[in-house]
Fold DNA-3-methyladenine glycosylase I.
Amino acid sequence: METDQKNRCPWCLGFAEYMTYHDTEWGVPVHDDRVHFEFLVLESAQAGLSWATVLKKRAGYRKAFADFDYQVVAEFPESYVQELLQDSSIIRNAQKIRAAINNAARFMEVQQEFGSFSDYIWSFVGGKPIQNSLQRGQAYPATSPESDALAKDLKKRGFKFLGSTIVYAHMQATGLINDHLVDCFRYEQVKV
């Protein structure tokens, strides 16, 4: 694969979808509830799998999960779960599919309580992104005190398939934590 000469986080090198995702989405602060819901569904689907697998199936998820409209997803009947289990465009795992439906309902409960899911989730980082200073060759964290607290609170609220590691990945993806390497061209671009 031919690439430009920009410094990037090493995890995104290897295939075009990864690089595009890294260059345009990963770490950009998100305040849109639908985007937060999309990443909650995708991150929980990724549990035990590679992010590459999920990215390759993202379009299938978008179609199968009503363009991540949590109001629609919360109402999916069991008959639709059975259809989804036959849909090769998504990860066919009954627990993950049912978790997404459950989480859509819990998501709306959070919105009712806090005004938006975005307001709720950003409160765990004091309303502004955590700016990590990762160096090339340094391991990425898998969790943080903030992801631990958020995962614990989500679990208390009835969310499923969202432990601290998955929540940390969500926080990285949606810009609550800037984990671009300091020498990555995106580090300064997403810094708030």
User: Anything to note?
Assistant: The chain has eleven helices and two strands. The mean pLDDT is 95. The domain at 10-190 is CATH 1.10.340.30 (Endonuclease III; domain 1). The chain has one domain: 10-190.
